[in-house]
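Summary for the steering committee. The consortium agreed at its last meeting that each partner would contribute one worked example illustrating the joint modelling workflow. Our contribution is presented below. We chose a case with several input lines so that the handling of multiple components could be demonstrated. No manual editing was applied between input and output; the record is shown as generated.
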Amino acid sequence: MTEKPVSRYPIPRLEDLPEDIRTRIVAVQEKAGFIPNVFLALAHRPDEFRAFFAYHDALMLRESRVSKAEREMIVVATSSANDCHYCVIAHGAILRIYAKNPFIADQVAVNYRQADITPRQRAMLDFAVKVALHPQQLEEEDFARLRAHGFNDEDIWDIGGIASFFALSNRMAHLIAMRPNEQFYSMGRAC
Amino acid sequence: MTEKPVSRYPIPRLEDLPEDIRTRIVAVQEKAGFIPNVFLALAHRPDEFRAFFAYHDALMLRESRVSKAEREMIVVATSSANDCHYCVIAHGAILRIYAKNPFIADQVAVNYRQADITPRQRAMLDFAVKVALHPQQLEEEDFARLRAHGFNDEDIWDIGGIASFFALSNRMAHLIAMRPNEQFYSMGRAC
Amino acid sequence: MTEKPVSRYPIPRLEDLPEDIRTRIVAVQEKAGFIPNVFLALAHRPDEFRAFFAYHDALMLRESRVSKAEREMIVVATSSANDCHYCVIAHGAILRIYAKNPFIADQVAVNYRQADITPRQRAMLDFAVKVALHPQQLEEEDFARLRAHGFNDEDIWDIGGIASFFALSNRMAHLIAMRPNEQFYSMGRAC
Amino acid sequence: MTEKPVSRYPIPRLEDLPEDIRTRIVAVQEKAGFIPNVFLALAHRPDEFRAFFAYHDALMLRESRVSKAEREMIVVATSSANDCHYCVIAHGAILRIYAKNPFIADQVAVNYRQADITPRQRAMLDFAVKVALHPQQLEEEDFARLRAHGFNDEDIWDIGGIASFFALSNRMAHLIAMRPNEQFYSMGRAC
Amino acid sequence: MTEKPVSRYPIPRLEDLPEDIRTRIVAVQEKAGFIPNVFLALAHRPDEFRAFFAYHDALMLRESRVSKAEREMIVVATSSANDCHYCVIAHGAILRIYAKNPFIADQVAVNYRQADITPRQRAMLDFAVKVALHPQQLEEEDFARLRAHGFNDEDIWDIGGIASFFALSNRMAHLIAMRPNEQFYSMGRAC
Amino acid sequence: MTEKPVSRYPIPRLEDLPEDIRTRIVAVQEKAGFIPNVFLALAHRPDEFRAFFAYHDALMLRESRVSKAEREMIVVATSSANDCHYCVIAHGAILRIYAKNPFIADQVAVNYRQADITPRQRAMLDFAVKVALHPQQLEEEDFARLRAHGFNDEDIWDIGGIASFFALSNRMAHLIAMRPNEQFYSMGRAC
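What follows is the complete predicted structure of the assembly.
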């Protein structure tokens, strides 16, 4: 058993980071009780760090009719389609917490088609996984299918935007071989 | 949220089952504290049930230089390659217990290439996943690679045989839409 | 031209085999006039041999509304999808004999979509090949399509079960590089 | 069982064909004892017929260090990669006759990697199937591998040219749903 | 930056070519102002050259209800599906000229689903690209879809025939690493 | 011929945009002579707009040993792998200008393996396209191959980061069906 490092790239020391980045990381640490590795690993490049989390927040924290749990479902389903170690484990934890459901993250990660989700959520994940894997095949009928489930065009931008952002995020995680913190594995489980 | 049934097919009552099958199921229940759904779901067809578990035991319980934890790694890695809900969750639990490692199952399920495993185990899983996904491309060099890691021909039969058996098992689970018991999700986690 | 052996693994001598296995093999030999290589090759591991043929018989010999010729069509179509030398040749021979049709096996092996089969058989093979290649994508509508052709749920288990069992069988044949007996190539041909 | 027609398109009557085409067809009929369906099916368009067979002959009849049996192996392997009913059956027959081997065509069609062929022929078929399926990935090292087996650049043009021509031929056969004559199924078999 | 040769194979000198081939090439040169490389590269083998261009002309110059611009769309879409450098660049130029549209070739090459074409042309290209990439999956419903857009069976042969011919042409271009003339890049652009 | 709109979503009027976004757009317009559609289309969501261009600039404008022309090659090659209409056309124009080469963009878009680039650039694009299409298969040997061409770890982050960012960018372009400005088609061509 060989334990692998957090990232292929150097991890900066907190005290060497620009003020705004250190402040953000400390705030996360106070809230979560630990520093998720993505903050340390991406801080290697401050400008990309700032843009990455600004984009993340713009999609994941905005007011939306797609619930926060549903947005995390999108992250887990598309990150699993990309076999992304960090994102499946870390966002699986967040999904369990938001959904108050200890099973849902593993179900969505293994095969969202068999998960205990509503038909509306199933349609949402079909669309998101298509954006993740075959975006060039998006057609009007894909939009029509979501509208038939009550999603409007802004909801669809949210769904597609999250799938697009995690296409970037998953690839950065693979590039730097980013590892999830051990805490994520058990968070939100009923045990 | 719609909770789905254990199987697309009827689940027999314990008292209606042939004696040998009921005995086996009761023994499992006493050991595990619950009846894993695969026993109930496959008992719908007693002859196939008997053959299925005889095959399972022949591979998973035999004396082998491939450890029991490693055999479960093969199950999890190939079942994940097949997106098999039941097998990833249930055998993930068994893997955590055998390996005494609360992280390993999720790591192997999401992307075994990034898991905390030895180079020998990595070669083993590369071979097993090739058997699962592209068996027609097996060549002498695949065998040579395993031998270079110290596996002998009987070990290789074990590895390939388990990947082959779970090719069957995963497909049956998909056919009948078999669901894992809730207990499996948290077994062997350090929480 | 290099003639390849029957199996990558040792072939046991008949007299060294356990009684029950030798008896089964001798019975086959008396009926067929030769010993199909699968019996010799798998006898290398008696426990797996017994489970393998018990499973085979449970599916291939049971009373079913899926005819024996149709079951062999499933074997040929899915084994061809897996490029399995042994299974396509050996079960192609059996299919020709059961269907009393010298052309059907080659047609199903090359491209079952163009074979001289009924629409009901076409639907059956579409389902079986999906189980073989993309089992994670099985949906209720796949079942509905078979039901529209008059198949009931037990028929569907037969179809999916055979495709699942030969997912195992094809992989074992690839693992051990099993070769078909020369007799199979010409059996059941009108020449 | 529904018997399908020779072609999706009309089959011209011999007496309605242009003289040169009728002459060619009659000559084939005299030699083979029957008219292979490809001649009747493609005669629907005389200009394309003439170009098709001119191209065929330029590759398949020319002097070459790639033997006629080897050229037919290329046809069978690549046509099988394209699931082409007509070409696998018809050229399988020709391959059996040229190679004086009743098994070789089925072996190459099911999985040429497991066929009884020489390492040189294996390299030839690897190249041909790459031309058939992934021509955009041809690299200098593919040429080097063939040269290491003694093929020169003109041999390689023959191999790649045949794979390219049958890329056309297979697609035309699929387009018109061309069926092989029954005679081809049994020609050259030792039965 | 390494400039690559016109072909992996020798380019014959014009004066060494057979009379009919030289005549054709000179005629093209007079009309176009330069000799497209395909003529020089394929002249390495005169018999194949003659058959190739006879086939090309039979499909591309015949009277047809599929317009010449539409035929070039088929060439560009299918050649792009095959990543064929020569055919996308050279036929892109011809398409721009026939369609009198400086944008259409790049649109069709990058993603014909997003090009400014009619629904009828979209259906035509869907069919052509299916012939190029998955010809074994052609079904009656593919024909029905084209007929619903007003195409008759001869039109469909044209569409499928062109896609089939360029399956050959693209593969030959990859085999010999054929490069387009620099003139093609800018022909028909509004600049 | 139906001309399609710039985006599936509403295009804001310049005067309705937040000051910082309008300022950026006006600056681009003054430099380029027109407003590239990506600025108008993404301005529909100001927060995502700001993060998108901050990320873009962090990667595309930073000091790097990967030249600006090479960075645009990465954009064109990966966007072509994703069939992205907007990015291939718009960044193809920028690549032609930076590389002072009217042919390079079309070559890289159709098949970068056949483009007139150095072996170092070939290795760079192999890596970038792997990040775009199969990021889960990145291994140490992929990094070793780049290092053998003189790339250091920061260069590799640049290469992988750009491929990752355009994985997002391409998907957003597909989601909103973004169209390139007509100006891009001819910019930097020698005509």
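Chain B has a mean pLDDT of 96. The CA atoms of residues 60 and 116 of chain B lie 23 Å apart.
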